[in-house]
């Protein structure tokens, strides 16, 4: 059983930055394809960024390109978020799959393991 756990959420003003972290237990990140998702109240869960297990492939939602960056250092996955906007306010989730693929997906159906989420609130 793989368990994901996010941290690093908080409240910031528009234009600020936050860095989210995610750890996994049960399998090392070398065996996982990880991703970040978010869900705002009343909206569907949205893929924010994903990374193939090798790191050769990353993808971003159009709304965050140029502002967010996904990375992995050892057994911790990060989401660096800069130039935050009020519409980035959401619960952010770390997810992972064990698919043996060189690509990554922003579709939530591809992921088997999810963390409980960390709240990000951006005020104007």
Task: Map the helices and strands.
Blueprint lengths: L2 E5 L2 E4 L4 E8 L7 E7 L6 E6 L6 E3 L7 E6 L2 E6 L8 E8 L15 E2 L3 E6 L1
Parallel strand pairs: 2-11
Antiparallel strand pairs: 1-3, 3-8, 4-5, 4-9, 5-6, 7-8, 9-10, 9-11
Describe the structure.
It is globular and about 40 Å long. The mean pLDDT is about 95. It is mainly β and about 120 residues long. A hairpin with a 6-residue loop joins strand 5 (about 45-50) and strand 6. It has no helices and eleven strands. The protein has strands spanning about 5, 10-15, 20-25, 35-40, 45-50, 60, 70-75, 75-80, 90-95, 115, 120-124. About 0% of the residues lie in helices and about 50% in strands. Strands 2, 4, 5, 6, 9, 10 and 11 form a seven-stranded mixed β-sheet that branches. Strands 1-3-8-7 form a four-stranded antiparallel β-sheet, with no helix packed on it.
């Amino acid at each position: 059983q793989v368990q994901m756990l996010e941290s690093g959420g908080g409240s910031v003003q528009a234009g600020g930055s936050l860095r989210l972290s995610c750890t996994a237990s049960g399998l090392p990140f070398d065996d996982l394809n990880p991703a970040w998702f978010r869900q705002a109240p009343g909206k569907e869960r949205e893929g924010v960024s994903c990374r193939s297990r090798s790191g050769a492939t990353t993808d971003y939602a159009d709304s965050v390109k140029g502002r967010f960056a996904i990375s992995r250092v050892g057994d911790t996955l990060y989401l660096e978020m800069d130039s935050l906007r009020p519409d980035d306010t959401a619960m952010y989730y770390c997810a992972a799959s064990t698919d043996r693929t060189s690509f990554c997906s922003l579709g939530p159906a591809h992921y088997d393991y999810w963390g409980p989420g960390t709240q990000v609130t951006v005020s104007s």
